Amino acid sequence: GQNIDQPTEMTATEGAIVQINCTYQTSGFNGLFWYQQHAGEAPTFLSYNVLDGLEEKGRFSSFLSRSKGYSYLLLKELQMKDSASYLCAPLDSNYQLIWGAGTKLIIKP
Amino acid sequence: GAVVSQHPSRVICKSGTSVKIECRSLDFQATTMFWYRQFPKQSLMLMATSNEGSKATYEQGVEKDKFLINHASLTLSTLTVTSAHPEDSSFYICSARGSEGAKGVHIEETQYFGPGTRLLVL
């Protein structure tokens, strides 16, 4: 079957660094997306990894290991506005996104 | 680039009426559009996938006669909730995927989401 495993909730301090891990099992694999979703809003695209390694984009970086079925999203210099849910979504063999429940990140001052 | 709009953002209707939600890709051609539903504190649930000019593919358990999807052009898809009932109250979100026309950074296979439509059926 297809499965996404992320922590349900994480708490971090403003200005700090946090890493959100994601493990997945899919029927085929065509890359993995990370989306951010603020409460009551639609998801917004953060990153896409299809090759192993780290992709850096400003304060956010995303890592992928295809052999391990593992990815993480790294957020640096946390700001209060980063409080949101972070969704790890791999793309299966049919190019369908597989969605989990996401990780709710709470930033404290 | 890669902006998706959705209208209306919020709708309240009486039970038994039909509601139409529009999804538009503003600066790129969306070869595929997706319709999702999300209940509070739950994950996104894909309802259907539509390709321009062809019939939508519905996920298991989604009634195609109740949720009518039309993808008439490369920039517009509509979802009509027919004979809405209170249990249809939810957050409906569309997304669009395309490979041509977007300016700036654009990755094929990326789904760009509209802002969502909050439906409340009384």
Q: Brief overview, please?
A:
With about 110 residues, chain A is mainly β. Chain A has strands spanning about 5, 10-15, 20-25, 30-35, 45-50, 55, 60-65, 70-75, 85-90, 105-109.
What's the total count of β strands of chain B?
11
Low-confidence stretches of chain B: 101-105
The succession of helices and strands of chain B, N to C, reads EEEEEEEEEEE
| Low-confidence runs of chain A | none
Q: Percent of residues of chain B in helical segments?
A: under 10%
Biggest β-sheet strands, sense, barrel of chain B? 7 strands, mixed
Give the strand line-up of the largest sheet of chain A. 1-3-8-7-6
Largest interface: A-B, 20 and 19 residues
Shape of chain A: globular
- How far is it from the N-terminal to the C-terminal residue of chain B, by CA? 37 Å
Which structural category do the helix and sheet elements of chain B fall into? Answer: mainly beta
Shape of chain B: globular
Largest sheet of chain A: 5 strands, antiparallel
Mean pLDDT of chain B: 89
Strand content of chain B: over 45%
Q: Looking at the chains present, what oligomeric state does this protein adopt?
A: heterodimer
Mean pLDDT over the full residue set of chain A: 94
Instruction: Give the helix tally of chain A.
Output: 0
